């Protein structure tokens, strides 16, 4: 027998300063997994932290013990941090990848970015449309090399990460191939089984990309330059991803590690 359903909204912090679909899918995934309404919360009032390279913010917020003890589930580091005592003041259910775990001194053997569950929250039939999607980091939308690539051939489709999140996910799911300097451009492509390639994230930390790649067992030693895209040989758009087993393992870890106390119903 189960306890009465938990109908209170689940308080989640996600980055809202700039429209970005990677951040916008965090409440969608949380609602799917928890079965609860999800609302945005300030850094001091969140029950849980999920999608995003937000552990620097968690570190600042929970440098000292507080009455509220939030859960970290799939969140990652953007860059190394000095001092990890904040991990004693939060509940760490899962982190994005082994690089984050190692930098925080966590002995963990399973990882996962919650963005990998978006295909469960928003299922979409995959029918490759012949387009090659380009998903830039939101800060690189005005890059001159990006403009030149898009102007060179109509097969290249700009997928603007600032557009509504569901539209972005649908566009990614339909492409033959995706090139992305947006981390969640890569992750969402993986979720929908779309072959994808990492593009140099000019001016951005590379740690989060390598952290994610290591979590799914993906060989991704260096990004390609955007001007080199036309010369690259692309795989069959219907071919399975070579690291699909790693994606599946992360997806299983995400579901298994989500705290029962945060679900709509708690087993009695």
Brief rundown of the structure:
The chain has 268 residues and is α/β, with parallel strands linked by helices. It has helices at residues 21-34, 55-61, 98-103, 118-121, 144-152, 165-174, 183-191, 207-216, 244-257, and strands at residues 10-13, 38-40, 48-49, 71-75, 91-95, 132-135, 156-158, 177-180, 196-198.
Features:
268 residues, Rossmann fold, alpha/beta, single chain, four-stranded parallel beta sheet, 31% helix, 12% strand, 2 domains
Structural account:
By secondary structure, the protein is of the alpha/beta class. It folds into two domains: 119 residues, no CATH class; 125 residues, Rossmann fold (3-Layer(aba) Sandwich), CATH 3.40.50. Helices cover 31% and strands 12% of the residues. Strand 1, helix 1 and strand 2 form a beta-alpha-beta unit. Helix 1 packs across helix 6.
Structural class comes to: alpha/beta
Poorly predicted regions:
none
Helix content: 25-40%
Distance between the termini: 6 Å
Count of helix runs: 9
Shape: globular
Mean pLDDT: 95
CATH class of the largest domain: Alpha Beta
> Which strand order do you get reading across the main beta sheet?
2-1-3-4-5
Outline the biggest β-sheet. Answer: 5 strands, parallel
């Amino acid at each position: 027998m189960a306890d009465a359903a938990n109908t209170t909204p689940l308080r989640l912090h996600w980055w809202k300063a700039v429209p970005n679909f990677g951040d916008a899918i965090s409440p969608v995934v949380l609602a799917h997994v928890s079965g609860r309404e999800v609302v945005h919360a300030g850094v001091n009032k969140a029950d849980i932290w999920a999608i995003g390279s937000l552990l620097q913010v968690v570190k600042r917020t929970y440098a000292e013990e507080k009455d509220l003890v939030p859960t970290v589930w799939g969140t990652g580091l953007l860059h190394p941090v000095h001092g990890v005592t904040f991990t004693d003041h939060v509940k760490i259910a899962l982190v994005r990848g082994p690089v984050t775990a190692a930098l925080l001194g966590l002995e963990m053997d399973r990882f996962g970015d919650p963005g990998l569950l978006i295909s469960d929250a928003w299922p979409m039939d995959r029918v490759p449309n012949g387009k090659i999607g380009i998903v830039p980091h939101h800060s690189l939308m005005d890059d001159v090399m990006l403009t030149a690539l898009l102007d060179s051939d109509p097969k290249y489709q700009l997928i603007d990460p600032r557009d509504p999140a569901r539209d972005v996910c649908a566009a990614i799911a339909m492409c033959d191939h995706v090139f992305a300097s947006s981390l969640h451009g890569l992750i969402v492509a993986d979720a929908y089984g779309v072959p994808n390639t990492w593009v140099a994230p000019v001016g951005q930390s590379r740690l989060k990309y390598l952290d994610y790649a290591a979590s799914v067992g993906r060989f991704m030693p260096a990004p390609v330059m955007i001007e080199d895209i036309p010369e690259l040989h692309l795989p069959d758009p219907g071919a399975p991803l070579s690291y699909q087993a790693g994606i599946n393992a992360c997806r299983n870890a995400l579901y298994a590690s989500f705290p029962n106390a945060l679900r709509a119903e708690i087993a009695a």
